[in-house]
Amino acid sequence: MAVPTMQAIRFHEHGGPEVLRLEEVAIPRPGPGEVRVRVRACALNHLDIWNRRGMPGRRLSLPRIPGADVAGEIDELGAGVSGLEAGSRVLVNPGISCGRCEACLSGQDTLCPQYHILGSQVDGGYAQYVIVPAANVLPMPRHLSFEQAAAVPLVFLTAWHMLVTLARVRPGETVLVWGAGSGVGSAAIQIARLLGARVFATVGSDDKMERARHLGAEVVLHHGRQHVDEEIRSLTGRRGVDVVVEHVGQATWEKSIRSLTHGGRLVTCGATTGYEGLTDIRYLFSRQLRLFGSYMGSKAELLHLMPFVERGQLKPVVDRVWPLAEAAQAHRWMEERRHFGKLVLTIP
């Protein structure tokens, strides 16, 4: 009897976009407590690129199907799953944890020793079907397309954890968001405005400036032409901002520190330009700054933010949609930083 197969994008070795292959692989079966989702759309993240390239000190078992951000329909329920129905339209929380340890039971999923992200340690959504824990699926907002829904989970959860849970942004505060055209950046602008903050944002090209303003950034700076830290000090009367949302890393780290006011908070979730950030320690203690490292967010936090998506107060930003077979081209588009918001693959 022939084994049923599906189309999937896999990489068998680390390297450039050319290592991504469209292949026929066996359709996975859900185990106890799991569901199988028929994937309709999967959004790209920089994590996909890092996994594809390979990162020092981090090993992935290969071949691997990438993809963390999934929207689709429940196809099959594993043993013991209740409260869900086949055919339901869902989006997937990409953070997977054991659900039993102290961290999980206290609502701090990301501190679970077994925490991992879909498409990294397990196969992800660049495929027609994906297996996830039943606890990781939630209803898809009715007004969103599959492509829009796939653009929500990872970046909005990450930005929510950064701004709401860690930085605790308050109405009237000032927030600087680096890289407004990124998925996290476009989400962070909206969440900061939702919290009542005044938002400064940076972009790397002129065509992205108006789009950042449309999302709610009051002032948009071109980080390729302007000295952002100096501009921030000038725009705030030499005060600086209360919060910096940092995910760029080495290229912007020192400027982020210098942009903060006394008692300011820097929250970081990435290092796309390098891992080493120069820090003048005198700024830390003399200005009593606080630095927060952020990695995704909890299942509860995604539930907290979804009502704002459902009411249209937080909106997924989809830049471009590609068919699954063109995943390599989508990766090139992201690496060239040509996007504003999310790039999404549609699954046949």
Automatic annotation (TrEMBL):
Q: What keywords are annotated for this sequence in UniProt?
A: NADP
Q: Does the keyword Transcription apply?
A: no
Gene3D superfamilies linked to this entry: Medium-chain alcohol dehydrogenases, catalytic domain (3.90.180.10), NAD(P)-binding Rossmann-like Domain (3.40.50.720)
Top-rank taxon: Bacteria
InterPro entries named among the record's database cross-references = ADH-like_C, ADH-like_N, ER, GroES-like_sf, NAD(P)-bd_dom_sf, Zinc-ADH_QOR/CCCR
Q: Which residues form the Enoyl reductase (ER) domain?
A: 15-345
Its name, as the record gives it, is Zinc-binding dehydrogenase
**Which organism does this record belong to?**
Carboxydichorda subterranea
